[in-house]
């Protein structure tokens, strides 16, 4: 019988920290609030010289709820704005299970995010399609739901392709690429889309969804996220680079262990730097 991600997370918590009260208390009271800024250089195949050193802010998996407070969200926004990225991507799961009580508040908390080349958002598996898109759009984000848009940076085009969580077939993603002739960046909540992106020759994918495992047990790792090709940070398949953020919030259990929340600032670099980055898998 296949275990759900929820069951694995709960089981990992019980097995790993059930008998260690101090560790569980730390993960609940402290670590899940200890948001940091992750800065990474990301090698991109075929990157034009004009896009070298472009800085992308990635904020994902907010999960605003009774466990992830307004202050937690504002803290993430402030941390990212302090980095002054050139472009901002919001990676989905703004609330948990589509809870509309928190949808307006989280959209308003994210509204101060601005960047010279815009703020772009996709939806995650916890987001209701139309209400979430409306709330985010009202507060300044461009929401990409199986859609492509283009921005131009120093005369170099970037085609941003944003897909829904449920868009999985390579043919459906390929259809969104027709007419793209800039540097393509796929925004996909689920890191499992790395396989399709690599097959299509997409040079860069930005994802979330995993929470970095949320509970990372010593000697065991991120049990709940083992099925993903990249759990957190950088990965590469063929000539496609992926970055997966640990995200801001929590789901199922309000605990993070050995896996603090983050916002990420990604600096694009030429492909030859990929040897210094982690390989997928």
Q: Main traits of this protein?
A:
Purple Acid Phosphatase, chain A, domain 2, 12 strands, globular, 7 helices, 6-stranded mixed β-sheet, alpha/beta, 281 residues, 24% strand
What this model shows, in words?
The structure is a single chain. With 281 residues, the chain is of the alpha/beta class. It has one domain (5-272): 4-Layer Sandwich (Purple Acid Phosphatase, chain A, domain 2), CATH 3.60.21. Helices cover 25% and strands 24% of the residues. The chain is built from seven helices and twelve strands. It has a six-stranded mixed beta sheet, covered by helices on one side. A six-stranded mixed beta sheet has the order 6-7-8-9-11-10, covered by helices on one side. Strand 10 and strand 11 form a beta hairpin. Helix 3 (70-83) runs parallel beside helix 4 (103-110). The longest helix is centred in the first third of the chain and has 14 residues, at 70-83.
Topology, element by element:
Layout: H1 5-17, H2 21-29, E1 36-44, E2 55-59, H3 70-83, E3 87-90, H4 103-110, E4 119-121, H5 129-138, E5 142-143, E6 147-153, E7 156-163, H6 170-177, E8 183-188, H7 194-200, E9 204-207, E10 233-237, E11 240-244, E12 262-270
């Amino acid at each position: 019988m296949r275990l759900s991600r929820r069951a694995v997370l709960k089981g990992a918590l019980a097995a790993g920290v059930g008998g260690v009260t101090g560790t569980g208390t730390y993960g609940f009271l402290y670590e899940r609030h200890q948001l940091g800024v992750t800065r990474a250089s990301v090698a991109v195949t075929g990157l034009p010289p004009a896009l070298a050193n472009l800085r992308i802010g990635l904020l994902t998996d907010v999960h605003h709820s009774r466990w992830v407070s307004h202050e937690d969200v504002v803290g993430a926004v402030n941390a990212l704005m302090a980095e002054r990225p050139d472009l901002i991507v919001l990676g989905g799961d703004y609330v948990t299970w589509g809870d509309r009580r928190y949808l307006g508040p989280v959209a308003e908390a994210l509204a101060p995010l601005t960047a010279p080349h815009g703020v772009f958002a996709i939806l995650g598996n916890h987001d209701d399609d139309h209400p979430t898109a409306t709330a985010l759009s009202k507060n300044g984000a461009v929401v990409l739901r199986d859609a492509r848009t283009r921005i131009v940076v120093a005369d170099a085009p970037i085609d941003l392709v944003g897909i829904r969580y449920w868009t999985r077939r390579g043919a459906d993603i390929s259809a969104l690429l027709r007419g793209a002739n800039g540097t393509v960046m796929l925004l996909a909540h689920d890191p499992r889309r790395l396989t399709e992106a690599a097959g299509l020759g997409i040079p860069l994918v930005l994802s979330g969804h995993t929470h970095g495992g949320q509970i990372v047990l010593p000697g065991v790792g991120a049990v709940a996220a083992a099925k993903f090709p990249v759990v957190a940070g950088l990965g590469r398949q063929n000539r496609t680079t992926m970055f997966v953020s640990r995200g801001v919030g929590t789901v199922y259990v309000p605990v993070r262990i050995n896996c603090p929340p983050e916002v990420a600032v990604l600096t694009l670099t030429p492909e030859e730097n990929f040897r210094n980055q982690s390989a997928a898998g």
